[in-house]
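Milestone M4 deliverable, item 7.
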Amino acid sequence: MVKSLVSIEACSKKDIKRILDNAAKFEAQPNRRLMDGMIAATLFFEPSTRTRLSFETAVNRLGGRVIGFSDAATTSSSKGETLKDTILMVSNYADVIIMRHHIEGAARYASEVTRVPIVNAGDGANQHPSQTLLDLYSIKKTQGKLDDLTITIVGDLKYGRTVHSLIVGMSHFNPRFHFIAPAELRMPEEQKRFCKLNDIEFHEHTVFSEDIINDSDILYMTRVQRERFTDLIEYERVKNVYILHKKMLDNSKPNLRVLHPLPRVNEIAIDVDESEKAYYFEQARNGLYTREAILCEVLGIKI
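Output delivered:
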């Protein structure tokens, strides 16, 4: 694996398995002073709760320290400082930079202008590799395997960077996909072309039916992202098009688990929280262990 984690494509099947194995070690023992004396910079040019807090908790659990910002308006970028200058300046102070940015490709660019490892915490609608790795860890924990699973992805498939990355991450494990989205938010051609090139079976739907749910091992719900829309009328038209209710899971497989990268809005009804098949809060907790493993990976720390 390359020094930085910019995209999930940079991870081979062997890399993924190693990171997930290490995540399991951190779940068994999260407090290890493997980053003692090191500093991580969290640069969040876009809002974040789970990703930023789980990365910062991971650094603290590993014995490191955190610097950075969660609001770009309070930084010199609001004065016109370029991303390159910000990255070069921060790299003087930190051993690793964890960055979220609204521009696609920003993390890759940052990795090219500095020798400090960059961890991509989301770049526009492009990639979210650490989310993918925690998703894979969650899938493996709940299913006992990653191979030969049927995964149904619902909601915003056009702008959803988590689902774009998930397709690539799962490509090593012979998945079968159902893509459920309104026409305005259907899976982009780039991702469908990737599936075809890698002989990944997929089916597109506009109706969120219980027959598809019952065929699934993983039901991956996503939020329709208001912040990605330039036309708010279009957003209002599609924001509540698919809502999962507990009763819709009545005839699903016993092993089915419901995942969501969070935050949710209305796409998962509150009554689903009572189901043993709801796994999204545990999924978020898995992010801590996975991100501890990611930090050690890019820093070359042996566990």
